Amino acid sequence: MATQTEPALLVRASGMLPWRIRGGKLQFAVVHRPRYDDWSWPKGKLERGEEWAVAAARETLEETGLRVRLGLPLPTSWYGLGERDGRPQLKQVRYWAGTVTGGSGDLEHEIDQVEWLPAAKARSRLTYRRDREQLDAAVDAHAADQLDTWTLLVVRHAHAVGRKAWKGADPQRPLTPVGQRRADRLVELFDAYDPAHLVTSPSVRCADTLAPYAAASGRKLVDRRGLSEEGYAEGPTKLAARLAKVLGRGEGTALCTHGPVLPEILTALARHTPKGRESSMLSRLAKSNLDKGEVLAVHLAGTGAKATVLHLERHRPPS
């Protein structure tokens, strides 16, 4: 028998609110599960070692046949599942808004219907009250022009051979086997955010951190000296110009650079962030830096000088 002091079993899952505009109206995709005869959002449990964001994209593809790019994070849902082996179960589901980028639309066995509905109809169709919290947050974001976002993935290169152990030129230092494994694992994470542009320092350790995703996605890997330690040491002008170009374009971008360069980028992004949690987090990270192999997902609305940071997600490598 479970006791009051015995911790609950945590069941982790991720989900998505696919959205679109049709005829000037905001619509969402809801799914029907015949096993439970309910209407909800595409979602499912994390696989062993899987990241939340990766699971959200994977489960949406598996359930709806749609490839969906992760956008703005939405409220997390918590609810009980009864007991298992005499212990209570608590389910945690993290959600994102998502934009459909492709896919066949073929349904898998757990889902027999997918319907695109206006927000009000989706709200009434949803079986569970808890699912309406994510819908309401997405509707509010749309009303504030903050649902249609783009994501800047700020990447610190994965673990590389140490400076003292390397006899060649510093820009040629390669990733260690641990670093290469991290670069390979990042393919799924990048795929969930679907960046259109891949920009890196020309140093081998940075380029090789993005290379597996570039190969998997078929997207061009562009190197810029201003993102290297050597280029930055010559002066921050090129770095500022590169970041300004990224913000001006306003399209999903993965940008890989070095620890000494990152504080300048994070400080610049903080200037595009309203005071609050995200602003404090950027300022703190500018001092403490990202981990090697970490990806900071920066969700922004707008472009150029009007680009505004709305939310941050840290994707840190396993310790």
From TrEMBL:
Keyword tags: Hydrolase
Q: Which InterPro entries match?
A: His_Pase_superF_clade-1, His_PPase_superfam, NUDIX_hydrolase-like_dom_sf, NUDIX_hydrolase_CS, NUDIX_hydrolase_dom, Nudix_hydrolase_domain
Q: Which residues form the Nudix hydrolase domain?
A: 9-139
Q: Is Hydrolase given among the entry's keywords?
A: yes
One of the entry's Gene Ontology molecular-function terms is: hydrolase activity
Q: Which PANTHER family match?
A: BIS(5'-NUCLEOSYL)-TETRAPHOSPHATASE [ASYMMETRICAL], DIADENOSINE 5,5-P1,P4-TETRAPHOSPHATE PYROPHOSPHOHYDROLASE MUTT
Q: What is this protein called?
A: NUDIX hydrolase
Query: What is the protein's species of origin?
Result: Ornithinimicrobium cryptoxanthini
